[in-house]
């Protein structure tokens, strides 16, 4: 398939007007939607933004390749946009981006489509192509330029067998469309320039290609793994392995190749199919690494909290003590709900949190130690805070054990996995949790829970204001997540009011924007008014991220407005003493709150109206 079967005249936009990343995203999504390529514009936009949050697709050299593979795409397509003045796209080289190729791949994209999409990403590495695209005056010129350089790929038969000094590499990105192949081509081009032999395996959406053989891996000087997703790592046992982000494969090929030739990398000692997460965090800051491990634990914990919390809330609808056999209101269904939700699902919350944090740090060998550490934290009263400590403690202890036990011969590798890592990891984590962590953290945990449970109205309202503002400050970013994790952690301690305030506040930004676009129509474009309708659904479903495109387009007016409304909603929820055991669900779980659910709904509505009114006052009329 030729690239120009996906890139057509009606998906080319030669005059990008926006100056920020999300402006460009909005314009190119609209181009694809107007061309009839999308089944769900809002869902596709959300998928594009989610990909950008993983890592920027601004690869440098003035190029950005936002992309998503999703069921929201009706027909595979490419949109091309150009900005003469340049856009702040948070590119890897810190320079403005001028050329934008937005790739829309269907969920069931076949190999023919994916090969064409990946071919485009490699064409853009050619400086001459970029110059010609910047100078093109018409859509036809753009298509002619792409056609000129578009050559069908031939199956690569490259082999390293028999060569004395060579490197092998693997590239992979989350979607497997663009960065995977650009990193591979960048490494191969730089290796050729340096006179170095290299073979690169690509783990793209169409599957692994140019797969490394056991003989090639055995004879390689070192291995480069430039990947933002899990790749099969066990085959690299005993080799010097450089693990880095896929972006570094594109931007720093020379540095990676030189390190590989010098064998300037640790010897990999893995046991499963996943990469060693801790070693794979090279290039990430300490804060980003900790955040990644924490979010891995939280995301795996949430299904237990949500499911268990809702079951507990339903149990209380039979009566506050209806699950107790000796209570006059006893109901066997209520008892079953409490046993399933509270006795099992909720009880697994802290162990699962700790287990998956440890697994993110140390791979599978860390999981057992983390789970046991989390259970000890739960039993010892250390709760959510203890679970956090147990997860990080177990993870890094196992990483340490891996390094300590490197002296053992490779023939005993299986013994390490089956016996030594779980035995020593569980024992060390357990002893530290029992004799060092549980008592002081349990006392702190109890003190925090007692303080929160006995807050006076004034202090409770102030806490609601703070949590509400945090939820709307970056809408899905680190500050928003910090407030959310704080609320879910308190659920394990039996403190439910902050979670209610947090959910109320998180519903406000999209609802406030939806109301504003309905009432103050002259302040919004037709496109914004259409997008505003979707925000009713997103707000009622507690999907705060629905407000992001509006905030990105006009942050100085939108962010303060939604923060104010969220702060009001959070304060009212705390003032009305509303408690929530289910940390998600929006309007659908409101009848399950402890307290008056109508007052809770009123809190959200008032907060949304405050945001809408402020938006109506602050925003300037648009001219269409």
UniProtKB/TrEMBL annotation:
Residues 290-624 form the PTS EIIC type-2 domain. Coiled coil: none annotated. The keyword Isomerase does not apply. Residues 5-149 form the PTS EIIA type-2 domain. It is found in: Cell inner membrane; Cytoplasm. Keywords: Cell membrane, Membrane, Phosphoprotein, Phosphotransferase system, Sugar transport, Transferase, Transmembrane, Transmembrane helix, Transport. One of its GO terms (molecular function) is protein-phosphocysteine-sugar phosphotransferase activity. InterPro entries: Bacterial_PTS_Sugar_Transport, PTrfase/Anion_transptr, PTS_EIIA_type-2_dom, PTS_EIIB-like_sf, PTS_EIIB_2, PTS_EIIB_2/3, PTS_EIIC, PTS_EIIC_2. Residues 167-262 form the PTS EIIB type-2 domain. PROSITE patterns: PTS_EIIA_TYPE_2, PTS_EIIA_TYPE_2_HIS, PTS_EIIB_TYPE_2, PTS_EIIC_TYPE_2. GO terms for cellular component: cytoplasm; plasma membrane. It is a multi-pass membrane protein. It holds the Pfam family PTS_EIIC. The keyword Disulfide bond does not apply. The chain crosses the membrane at residues 301-323, 343-362, 374-398, 418-437, 458-479, 499-520, 558-576, 597-618. Its main location: membrane. One of its GO terms (biological process) is phosphoenolpyruvate-dependent sugar phosphotransferase system. NCBIfam families: FRU, fruA, PTS_IIC_fructo. This is PTS system D-fructose-specific IIA component (F1P-forming) (Frc family) /PTS system D-fructose-specific IIB component (F1P-forming) (Frc family) /PTS system D-fructose-specific IIC component (F1P-f...
